TrEMBL record:
It comes from the Bacteria. This is ABC transporter permease. It is found in: Cell membrane. The keyword Transmembrane helix applies. It is a multi-pass membrane protein. Its main location: membrane. Keywords: Cell membrane, Membrane, Transmembrane, Transmembrane helix. One of its GO terms (molecular function) is transmembrane transporter activity.
Amino acid sequence: MIDSLYGAVELGLLYALMALGVYITFRILDFPDLTVDGSFTTGGAIAAIMITNHYSPLLACLTAFVGGLAAGACTGLLHTKGKINGLLSGILMMIALYSINMRIMGKPNISLLGSDSLFSSVSPFTLMVIVVVVVKLLLDAFFRTDLGLALRATGDNARMIRSLGANTDTTTILGVSLSNGLVALSGALIAQQSGFADISMGIGMIVIGLASVIIGEAIFGARTIFRATLAAVLGSIIYRIVVAIALQVEWLKTSDLKLITAIIVIIALVLPSMQRSLRQRAYAKRRSAELTAAVMKQNPGGGR
């Protein structure tokens, strides 16, 4: 059990970069980007093909990040310049990336067994703690810059930020690009950790990313950028721990992973709204009692 929890934390750190990418589009830009399912595979495909051709694993990761940036930029351009609905833009790019990823890989699956990777000489846990902390702090610093504030304002109130002279098309493209760059980097690291890249490795990634963000925010809150990015990282780890524990149940199988993910997301979405509803009811009941008491105090003989 201890080994499975340790492995869950390690996987959570590997997927934390993807969760941070989803946080940028889902929470900051309020952009429903489904490119994630394709760009995750793009990162793994680029890393795998470069490593098997004896390129440096670090260079492979950087190239995967650039590939994700390009995929995100295409989605952003379809939405801002092509005037295509954001959801549809992501779907179109996700479909296109399937063929592009097959072109990159040349076959549905590439094995990295026997090839050097970033984890050949360093523990995945140790390396990912460093990488995730560095990326999180860099994102926190970026979102405090003028450009970062403009990107945040684009998601909050695009009309207002346009009236102040900011180009919301540019900030949208930048945000979607950065998001998919992080997603592709996560895919590159996952491919190296698992020892292979597969054409279907990105299926369902958007749901896992949303689950991580929602769980993190429900538990840790998101009042500041520092807290929100930390919540996304910790949410990714908690999600993996919950999945690891769920798979210990005898009647659940590995093939039930997608079902477990869907149930976790549903619970994470429903619980906060239920809590808000209960708080509102309790407040309304308390307020009603206070008003009734005040009326009775002012007119003690009103009921006779």
